[in-house]
Amino acid sequence: MQEWLESMLALLALPRFGLSTLFVVAFVSATLVPIGSEPALFGLLKLNPELFWPAVFVATAGNTLGGIVDWWMGYGAHQVVDKWGHSRSHIKAIEWLEKLGPRACLLSFLPVVGDPLCAVAGWLRLAFWPCVAWMVVGKFLRYVVMTVALLHIFPGGIPGVTR
């Protein structure tokens, strides 16, 4: 057990790989804090290209857990929002989300609206595990597509940024 724990800690060591930092950045970026995790993922992969899949999985896990926090925040905020949320556009958005159900969480990868969407899914009390499953799919696909695109656009790294 000790040996396994040491090997896991060595894998997540900050100076060597940065997977733990990537996890934290992806987690925080999925909450309502407006930061992006793609630059951290891109930078890590420029330094360690052999970590493509582990880094994508770590970023997906961190970002999904942040989405789960959003879901629970929305779930707990239901009564507070009920007091002011009766505008026409609000009601149309709620109807649209209720119609889509947990599948709406597939759109959790979208900038600006994706993270609040997870909170609204919790507020609407959409089924937790199906929402999580759709979050994972959307966030995983975003990381794969964005990372492959960035690595293709900047194969030598970002100009002006030294290693």
From TrEMBL:
Occurrences of domain VTT (ranges): 52-149
Superkingdom of origin organism: Bacteria
Protein name: DedA family protein
Classification via InterPro entries: DedA_domain, VTT_dom
Keyword tags: Membrane, Transmembrane, Transmembrane helix
Pfam short name (any one): VTT_dom
Transmembrane segments: 52-73, 104-128, 140-161
